[in-house]
Amino acid sequence: MEGKPLNAWVLGLVSISVSMQLQAGVTEFGAGLDQSVWRLTSDSQIECRLEHPIPRWGTGAFVSRAGRKINLDFELKGQRPQARTQRVSLGIMPPIWRPGVAGREISQLQLYQQFDGLVAGQTAWTMLDELEGGRMPTFQYRDWYRQDRPVRVSLSSVNFRVKYQAFMDCLSGLLPYSFNDIAFSVLSYDKNSDALSPASKRRLAMIGDYVKADKSIDVVVIDAYSDSYGGRWPNQKLSEKRADAIKQVFVDLGIEEGKISVEGHGEKQHVASNETEGGRAKNRRVVINMGRNGTI
């Protein structure tokens, strides 16, 4: 002990003893060196999903979806449903081959009864960054199924970089709008024409890109209207022609014809006055409603 105060030695021994007791009392779940797998299970313009099986416990997954805002969630799904609502500590632990490096807590989370765990926003990005750096995001809580004994659930950084770059490439290709942004759309037309306005052409192109990426869209309702400029019968036929042209766009995108409802309403149901050019422009429109999995 020469050169080191007795108190320091005692404190060190106490610290090691407490650490060993905590380690012995915690049930650990995590992939070993030969078990760690990361899979890119969704790679499209509407969703990127990077999953990691946690042996004997469940699955963790990073998920980002198309939308106007930058987004990233981490979903923690156990084989057993969450038995109660409780606080959970989220920390960053060093890999087992770096035992001298201290871990740290980055967040306190709430796990809700009967729901999967969810980490959103900046904390999820931090977890992703720590894994890329070789560290292990770790959840610790008391498990109702194990008589409230502490449980530690870790994500392994082994083999993470193999799929990390592919996940980042997927993120860069996500569409900058979501299904809710385009599910209801109103397209406008030039006067006495079935030609879309420039803004509506861009809107239809956005819809097309999304429909090509999202195969769950299977309900499309198209309603076309005209202004009252000209005769009632020609306007009726013009609205039908506009509706049929939009229907063909969706058919070309792969939507079955039987799942597309089309109706031309002619001069009915105006939304603005026909006394002005601006009002008539609003009345010359096609309204598109889209749904997924059989519902709107």
Brief descriptors of the model:
5-stranded mixed β-sheet, 5-stranded antiparallel β-sheet, disordered N terminus, alpha+beta, 31% helix, 14 strands, 296 residues
List the helices and strands and how they pair.
Blueprint: H1 6-25, E1 27-29, E2 39-43, E3 47-54, E4 58-65, E5 73-78, E6 86-93, E7 104-111, E8 117-120, H2 122-132, E9 136-143, E10 149-154, H3 160-172, H4 179-182, E11 184-188, H5 198-213, E12 217-225, H6 232-252, E13 260-264, H7 277-283, E14 285-292
Description of the structure:
With 296 residues, the protein is α+β, with helices and mostly antiparallel strands. Helices cover 31% and strands 31% of the residues. It contains seven helices and 14 strands. The strands form three sheets. The protein has a five-stranded mixed beta sheet. A five-stranded antiparallel beta sheet has the order 2-3-4-5-8, with helices on one face. Strands 11-14-12-13 form a four-stranded mixed beta sheet.
- Which spans have pLDDT < 50 for at least 5 consecutive residues? 1-22
- Proportion in helices: 25-40%
**Globular, elongated, flat, extended or rod-shaped: what is the shape?**
elongated
User: Could you spell the SSE succession in H and E letters?
Assistant: HEEEEEEEEHEEHHEHEHEHE
Task: Please report the number of helical segments.
Answer: 7
Structural class: alpha+beta
The value of Rg in angstroms is 29 Å
Mean pLDDT: 87
Q: What is the oligomeric state here?
A: single chain
How is the main sheet built?
5 strands, mixed
Strand order across the largest sheet = 1-10-9-6-7
What's the total number of strands?
Answer: 14
User: Ends: how far apart?
Assistant: 76 Å
Strand content: 25-35%
